[in-house]
Task: structure prediction
Amino acid sequence: MTPKYSREKTPKINVVGSVNLDLVATVERLPGTGETVSGLTLERFPGGKGANQALAAHRLGADVSFFACVGDDNIADEALSILKDEGVKLDYCKRSSDEPTGQALIAVSLEGENQIVVIPGANSINFLNQDFHLPTADALICQLEIPIETVEIVSSNFSGFFCINLAPAVEISARLMSRADLIVVNETEAAFYGNIIHQRQGHTAITYGPKKAKLFLDGKIIAKTTPPKVKPIDTTGAGDAFTAALTVALTKNQPPENALKYACTAGALATMIKGAQTSLPTEETVLASLG
Ligand code: RIB
Result:
């Protein structure tokens, strides 16, 4: 029988994005506006959408180079520790003495839902010159926790498959929108952008938490699936696992239905352990769950 998911090709992927140290408070329920609630635990985890997506792609079998800016402080070492230990290439992580490493204050409820406040710090620095060229690779993944200018530079000077996770949602240029071969958004971000994410050539994926996910090509739906049912502990990083997994699968030329299922499974598995990076699944775990 032919396996559905090819392990043969090792895609080479550049990820350009943010690094944060996540300070995670577990709460019985998330506070409302102006409300104070008592936390149950307070823990520190490596995070940041860029770092999470780099590690996710690496665990899914890609050869990953990560480009980021951190502060010249101990927080950077803590925030990059898992990527370093697992062999993500960090040669391009710049240390700046102008800003501290980014941090995120995260409240996670017993149902696994979260609220996140990011203090960008060094993530707000454009650390690349206008003429910077990324190494040749199959794909580039970016998100929006770093300056748009940085995303513009790397995507203009790169000729491979370009995935942009439009999170957090902010206005972007028409050039960036049309340059993207794959846009990934959740339903809130999809509502922010409206129809423009579909008025372009390329793939667009929209996730709806545990309910469903849809994949569009040139504005037309080509796949729809429901993630596997899991008991969520912490949904932080699920979108990052989904983004990386969909890019890996499409880079391996998986058919749309398979690629979307693979990404949904990676996203669902990423909710089962506390912490953004601690929970990111390996290729083996995702394949085992797909059966
Ligand atoms: O996507 C999850 C990430 O968002 C967290 O790790 C946090 O650092 C914020 O960047």
